Amino acid sequence: MTAMNNGNLEQSVALHEWYALRVKSNRDQVVASHLFGRGYDTFVPTYKVPGPTPQSPPKSRPLLAGYVFCRLNLSTRLPVLTVPGVLGIVGIGKAPQPIPDDELESLRQVTASPFRVTPTPQFVVGGRVRIEAGPLCGAVGTVLDCRRGHFVVSITLLQRSVSVMVPPAWLVSASANFTHRTAQG
Predict the structure, then answer these.
(1) Would you kindly state where each structural domain of the chain is located, as residue ranges?
(2) By C-alpha distance, which of 90, 183, 170 is closest to 135?
(3) What is the pLDDT of residues 102-130, one digit of tens each?
């Protein structure tokens, strides 16, 4: 290939849209490396976690575990889908949906910043949650608000409601079919 053709290839790749690929557990970096080796532009946002001892260097972990961002042409997606570890392209139904460039750029800025970045589940106001840690473990409630990095959760009992502020790490989304544990079983 001549330099001109490489320039045209780079231009055409730059015109392709970003897509999120769902990948097998713990295969984020392997898939990204494989795709990069095939000439694809990839991005795996990471964050640092402390090592097991204070002297250990921090380790990088995927910020969005199970996902690799890849710039690709949907009409020629088969080479991407055949990479070992790729489960599919994220979309609505069977239609892959591109990731807007500004969202991906914002994610790049956040992960490159000096600020501490950690994955946090997205809880919405009005969403049902279950407290999975701390002294309220097992309680189910509704998210009312988020203040100073903690969620205000309303727990209803006897047609009364009390609210409590808990860290997001204690919460998981309560499924629609979640049933309260009873004293009988």
Answers:
(1) 3-112, 120-185
(2) 170
(3) 999 999 998 898 888 877 667 777 888 88
According to DSSP, residue 99 is labeled: B
Q: How far is CA 128 from CA 8, 120, 154, in A?
A: 51, 16, 9
Check whether domain 120-185 has CATH 2.30.30.30, yes or no: yes
Q: Which residue, chain included where needed, has tokens 């231009």?
A: 11
SS3 at position 161: strand
Percent of the chain with pLDDT over 70: 78
CATH number assigned to the domain with residue range 3-112, chosen from the 4 options 3.40.50.300, 3.50.50.60, 3.30.70.940, 3.40.30.10: 3.30.70.940
Q: Is the pTM above the cut of 0.70?
A: no
Which positions ≥6 away from 10 have C-beta within 8 Å?
none
Count how many Cα atoms sit within 13 Å of the Cα of residue 134 in the half-sphere of its side chain: 13
